[in-house]
Every structure is written in structure tokens, then in C-alpha cells.
Amino acid sequence: MSRILVVDDEPDIRMLVRVTLGLDGHDVVEAGSGIEALEVVERDPPDLIVLDVMMPELSGWDTLNQLKHHADPHLREIPVLMLTALAGPMDRAKGGIEGAVRHLAKPIAPDDLRTSVLDALSGEPEPEQRRRARNQAMEELARMERGESGAAPSGSVGPRTRFGGLEAVRTDRAPATAPAPDLAAAAAQLTAKQRELLEA
Q1: DSSP state at residue 50
Q2: If you classify domain 3-145 with CATH, what class do you get?
């Protein structure tokens, strides 16, 4: 089967992934940090990487960035699955834009992990998977921009940021209107000739 590198600073998560994928016959290697992961990749490149985001020293995003900008094209094309507690629409979109082929949310069911790994390993070549993930991320961002997803829950207050705008758009109050003119004050400033013309 395949050699898979699981990168997470939580030993329990690494063990869960190792046992789950090991039962399918994969050779699972562990790294407890992004720095250690990069060393493993340089020394003995895996076929796939399962990468956490929130880690000390070097985050998963920074690790992914270094992998996808590596000088060696073979290392750049290792499929990366993000496995993280950050599961909001912006996080999913960021994963696709940064170069991950899948974004998996913790906690994950073992069958979902197996399916995602199998798809990434036996599907299209990594550059095509990455291109598809990036396109999906851009579509998700466009939907958020239009307010079709990622909107604030019903009844909530506070600004909803539009990505294309320069400032937050408030959705919890009516738009401001110009104050009504003070007609009495304006009339007092009219000259006798102006009053005469108005009354004619």
C-alpha cells in the first residue's frame, strides 16, 4: 500500500490516524510538528500527507506553503489532506487556495478518513486534484461574497464583512438617511425679493 505521513502535535490524533490507515495496510509515519514533517519529507517522501493546522513552531498553513513551494517538483506534488478543528467556510477555502486537495474536519469518522485518503491516492494526479480544490475554494469565496453561505445566523447582530468592499456592511440597522431640512430657518434667511418670488 502507500506510505502516509500524519502530522499533528496531538499524539492521540496521530495514533487514531495511524491505526485507522494501518488497518488498510498503509505504512503510516508520524511527525509531531511542521518542522519534523518537512524533515521527514526531505528524507523519505511519503505518498500522502495528513496535516493538522494548529501546531506550535510551524503551523500547518506554513508547512503546506513550504511544501507547495519546494524546489523539488516531486515533493510539491505530494497530496496533502488538512485534518483540523478549523472547519469554517473560510478555513475550507483557504485549504484549497493554499494547495491542499481535501479539508477534513476533526473529529473525523474513520470511514470518512479512509475514503478521503483512498480518493486522494487513487484519483487524479495531484496537480489536477489541487486545481479542482482551488476552483472549489474560489467558488465558495464567491458564494460568501454574494452572501449565499457563511452568513451570520438569523437574529444575530454585528457587521458582515464583504470581501470586495473596503469596509464592513452593517446588516442590523436601516441605512442612514439625510436629516430633514429646517424650513423655518431657511425661510428666515430669505430676502424680501426672494419671498416675493416664492409667493408669486
Answers
A1: E
A2: alpha beta
Phi, psi values for residue 76, rounded to 5°: -65, -30
In the numeric block, the cell 430657518 is attached to 185
- Which of 4, 5, 10, 2 shows the shortest CA–CA distance to 84? 10
For residue 150, give the C-alpha cell.
Answer: 457563511
| Cβ pair 7, 31 in contact under 8 A | yes
Percentage of residues in the chain having pLDDT higher than 70: 74
- Report the SS3 class of residue 8: coil
Could you please report the per-residue DSSP string of 155-199?
T--SEE--TTSSSPEE-SSPPP-PPPP-HHHHHHT--HHHHHHHH
Three-state SS for 18-33 is: HHHHHCCCCEEEEECC
Note the pLDDT tens digit of each residue in 84-95.
888 778 888 888
Query: If you compute the radius of gyration of the chain from its CA atoms, what whole number of angstroms results?
Result: 27
Please give the model's pTM, rounded to 2 decimal places: 0.72
Closest CA to 26 of 100, 103, 130, 116: 116
- Cα–Cα distance for residue pair 42/61, rounded to 1 Å: 18
